[in-house]
Amino acid sequence: NGNLKVVRHSHVYDKFSHFIISFLFYFTINSIKRISNKKMNNNQKFYIDGKWVDPISKDILDVINPANEEIIAQISLGNKEDLDVAVNAAKNSFNTWSTTSVDHRLELLNRLKNIYKSRFDEMTKAIILEMGCPNNFASEVQTQSGLDHLNDFIERLKNFKFENNFSNQSNNYITHEPIGVCGLITPWNWPINQIALKVVPALAVGCTMILKPSEIAPLSGILFTEMIDEAGFPPGVFNLVNGNGEGVGNAISSHPDIDMVSFTGSTRAGRLILKNSSETIKRVCLELGGKGGNIVFADAPENGVRDSIRNVMSNSGQSCDAPTRMLVERQVYEKVIEDAIDEASKISVDLPNKEGDHIGPVVSKIQYDKIINLINLGIKEGANLAIGGPEKPPGLEKGYFIKPTIFTNVNNDMEIAKSEIFGPVLSIIPFDTEEEAIAIVNDTEYGLGNYIQTSDLAKAQRVAKKLRSGVVYINGNSMDSGTPFGGYRQSGNGREGGNWGLEEYLEVKTITGWV
Question: What amino acid positions are annotated as catalytic residues?
Answer without folding.
Answer: 287, 320
